[in-house]
Known about the structure:
The chain is α/β, with parallel strands linked by helices and 1000 residues long.
Amino acid sequence: MTAAPVTEHAVISRLRGSGVEVDASERRTSEYAYDASNYRVRPLAVVFPRTVDDVVATVRACADTRTPVVSRGGGTSMAGNAVGSGVVVDFSRHMNRILEIDPGAGTVAVEPGVVLATLTREVEAATGQRLTFAPDPSSKNRATVGGAIGNDACGNHSVRYGRTSDHTVEIDVVTADGARLTATATGLRATDPDDRASVLRASELSGELRALAREHLAAFRLELGRIPRQVSGYHLQNLLPEKGFDMARALVGSEGTCALIVGARMRLVPKPTSALLVCLGYDTVVDAARDVTTILEFSPAAVEGTDKAIVETMRWRRGPDSVTGLPDGNAWLFVDLDGDTREAVAGQADELLTRLGGNGRLVEGIAVADPEGRANLWRVREDGAGLSSRLATGGESWPGWEDSAVAPENLAAYLAELRTLMGEYDLDGVMYGHFGAGCMHIRITFDLRTERGREVYREFTRDAARLVVRHGGSLSGEHGDGRARSALLPLMYSPEVLEAFAAFRRAWDPEGLMNPGSIVDPAPIDAHLALEGVPDRQWRTSFDLQPVGAAETARESGRDAQPDPWVHAVQGCIGVGRCRADSGGVMCPSFRATRDEKDSTRGRARVLQDMVRGAATVAEGWRSHDAREALDLCLSCKACATDCPAGVDMATYKSEFFDHYYARRLRPRSHYSLGWLPRWLGIAGRIAPLVNAVLATPLGGFAARLGGLTPHRALPRFARAGQWRREVDDAARPVPRTGVLAPAGAHDADAPGGLDVVLFVDTFTRGFRPEVAGAAARVLAGAGDALECSADVCCGLTWISTGQLGTAKKLLTRAAAALDDGSERPIVVVEPSCAAALRKDLPELVPTEQARRVARRVTSFAAYVASWAGERHVAPPAAPVPRRAVVQTHCHEYSVFGPATQRRALAVAGVAEVSEANGCCGVAGNFGFEAEHYDVSMLVAETSLAPALRAAAPDTAVLTDGFSCAMQVGHVDPGARGLHIAQILDPGPAATGPQPSGTA
């Protein structure tokens, strides 16, 4: 039954009165109105419980006020089962502890908010890599145990390890009436035997459910648990006598509709000692599916698949080097083999390849034993959901029919008919998933923005449901039914089983307050779609946000135009939540510091999506205080543009929003002091000794506060005007050069082995690190490059990061004109942030052919050095190359020029041992210098940089190509000195030689 409307203030006041952490602000409810599905339902409030008592208080307050309750972990549900209109209970923020690891019993006790990857990592560390937690969905680095139990999640290795229900020993829950119960393999009991009310509730509920099982013995045996991935509906076969009345497994997959999970004991499994990936290429996914039964004969741990659309999109978004090592084909299977020894596993792989070759469908197959190579290829599969949402072709794809499952032996026939059905509806799809378990994650090119498109969505989904049922399959294989498929359950189950589902839910939750709309009494599948009802308005922007292929897509769809580019951009977030991961990549530094959804890329995007949806006018939207608050702690690191599988570029969105928000409005003082820094540097450089002397006195602290800067950081020393020119003028081509290979490529006639390049000496280098300019010039000259130095234009970076885009566009227009010399000479930029601005922001803010020509030529210094590997003679460095180095990953360089740029440059330099602080340093241009952001900037440093510095040996060099990174290193560890890669490679001044040309 559906819960009745409630008075908002009643439940919120009750929650606050009980001491529960609750947030009912419009901004917060926007963040939690979405998950990773097609749906949007704004909740009344969000609760962040710290203890089970908080959960009990929440449930009782909701029961007394007839308010729905929705439990939530990582918010990565693709079926809409983590959104709802009542109170959302987010367990991930505080109830995320691992309570006990018991290696002897092979179990682990956890709270529901523990992230799966964290659990796996801690278990393996605690057991000396002997045991692990098996369920590993692609969202494992942000999905939680509670969510995995709620959906009965599986993962890449489900062929070997099955579903979460196969690893569930006991579940502690709080029922809708506040009882605390524990579901076990043999029944229900009160969690606390002295809690008489809960003892009584356990007894009554057990009686009802045993009677339910007795009444439907035949139906449960015939219709439930037929295939490995039959997740749709409730798992009531576990109530059968032959299953031992396993209440724990019966509750798994109930999607929060029966009770709130507050704890669990989970089973651990042995970790294989040796593993190897076999990657198989096929012409089509159907051909790949036909070979699955052969592969399963080899007892693989995983059989995963993907098609070429994901690979093409990954290469388009992250560069051609982002996917390497794939065999030939248009569809691929990833097969994990494991065993006791490497030799045995390798032999198994050889035998598998021979068998598959004999089947006649395999295009090419390779075995990958290297752990890094395996991880890189698995990443293609794991990022599938996000990568497939915005394709290289410019199209979009959506979930809705993304989780169907059949028996593995029926997969090929099902996929062949499904592709035919999609063609009949003029739909295309991106196919990936758990081929070995018969579960397919197919994102389809639905048009959910128009009524006609939604009609197609409804009709196709019903036909697809009938199709999978004909093949003996399940509507859902691990994502659950939620809002996406619950209304289709009558196509899969008999009326008797459907009534049993309803009775099961009523027994637990008579008032229907627990996650209403899922499994029982659902709304239509097209109710509450997030893309419906967004006003069609024009949001004028400075950045060119027109999506790739927009015009072609509009013509093909018959619509006059695609969504407004700003609307389309902010709707790019589909909720996969990669920005909530605490490891891997750089995104999102503010969330890693605060652990607050507000400070994740996803949280910000959701607020922006509600801004374009709910603002009365465009002008009102640009003045949104909620959006301003959500963007406040964005460091503009640009990492999300690369790390986010959907390509969300929050740094750009923040810059655009700030430009409008502060139009004709007084800005923060730091926007004038730091945002206009290049102007101040021009003045300060003329009187640098005086300025430095003043800043060293108490007046320096006063000046910092006057400019909105934190007094806790030392301000950098200003260089004299022209000092950079004197440094560069010392550069000459050193006579001795050494290298491993002859030079390659086109070379300047006067510089054998080199190129004709432009060295762009940026404002930060000129104003604060002129010695780096000299080192850079000497390195390039030492490699035989003919240099021209350019330093008379600005990339506008500080104006971009503070959202002063009118000035930024003027500066970039001048830069494009000055640098467009008709040549294809590389423009090598010393400061990575400035290189990124010229490469990425220039063509987006100045969308001219001239700007695009210049942008294509721009490279960071490290990226240019990295391109020398094995091809260039270089002058030996004047100082010994350090044996080991810590790399502070530069966020902008990481995003624009590739994640491994600095590591590859160090390899060219000959540094043997490299450890990376993979995360933002915390300063990020102006952010860490602003008084209101200092504390967060230091928390960000503690996520990666500070631990790396503490762990480094005394003789370890610290690579900080970015000026901000160097400042943070000096602040965190005054004994450490950040070096630019040019300083490590610097051959030192030469006595003679031709000088670089150029103007100051």
